[in-house]
Each structure stands twice: as C-alpha cells, then as structure tokens.
Amino acid sequence: MLEHLAVIKKMDTIVRRDFRGYLLTNIITYLDKKAKEYCMIVFGTNELSLSLNGNALDITYCGKMFDLLSGGEKQRVDLILQLSIRDMLITYLDLNANILVLDEITDFLDKKSCKAVMALLENALQTVESVFIISHRSDTLEIPIDSKLTIIKNVHGISELLDY
C-alpha cells in the first residue's frame, strides 16, 4: 500500500510540474508576441524577445541581454513588458482596468523616445480611459495633457499641491 501511495505522489508531482511548465511556456509565448507588437510602436522594430532558459527568463532587445541595455532602452522595454502583462491579465482573467498610473516612465528618455512611448499609450491601450503620468520632467518632454497638478515639498519636507 505504501509503495502504491509513493507512485501516486510521484505521478502527481510530475503532472503538476509539467502543467506549470506548459502554463509558463504559453504565458511567455503570449508576452513575447504582445511585446513584439509594442516594440514596433516604441522602437520601430520587433527585435524584442522573451524566452525561457531553464528556470530563467531571458529578455533581449536587438540581440543584447536586458542587463546590457542603456537606461533609456531598459525604461522602454520595461514599460513594454508591463503593458504586455497588463494585456494578458485583462485578456485571460477578464479584468477591467480603465485607469493607468505611470510613475516616471520618461526617465532616461529623450524627446523622440518620449514621443514613441506616448504613441504606444495612445494607440495600444484602447481600454484605458484615464492615464495619470507622474514626472519631474513634464515641461521639457512635451507630454500631451488634459490637466496638470504641481506638487512641491514645503520647507518642512511635506508635499503640497500648488494652486493650479
């Protein structure tokens, strides 16, 4: 009887591991496809790749591993991946996320790169009704806005909303 239970336990472990591997492979496949679509908008190329390497996830852009990318490239790839994950969750879990809050997404970006990121937000996120962008550089990057709030730290280090 104990041998029979051991065999059942081993089979259960194998099935669970294989299912997790199957599920992870399908998730990576979805994310890779969506990231390539977004990469075309942001970079003008689809040379962004996600792949499993054993238990690790390899992310490459134009043949360079993520860790070797410039600060601006990392910033844009990171945003592409986050939006791809968002899309996957909305698609497969039937979630509704019509508000998007983005903090410092323009760090390390020049005006051209910033415009490409704004094009991604405008074209690829049809289900989003409101986008809130937090930035220290809003005046220099020509981010299209409907309204603007300015927050400063007072002499006591407490954030305050300026009159607008």
Helix and strand topology:
Elements: H1 2-43, E1 48-53, E2 56-61, E3 64-65, H2 71-93, E4 99-103, H3 111-124, E5 130-134, E6 151-153, E7 159-161
Parallel strand pairs: 4-5
Antiparallel strand pairs: 1-2, 2-3, 6-7
Helix pairs in contact: 1-2, 1-3
Structure description:
- The structure is a single chain.
- Helices cover 48% and strands 18% of the residues.
- It has 164 residues and is of the alpha+beta class.
- The strands form 3 sheets. A 3-stranded antiparallel sheet has the order 1-2-3. Strands 4-5 form a two-stranded parallel ribbon.
- A hairpin with a 2-residue loop joins strand 2 and strand 3.
- It is elongated, with a radius of gyration of 21 Å.
- The protein starts with a helix and ends with a strand.
- The model has no long low-confidence stretch (mean pLDDT 84).
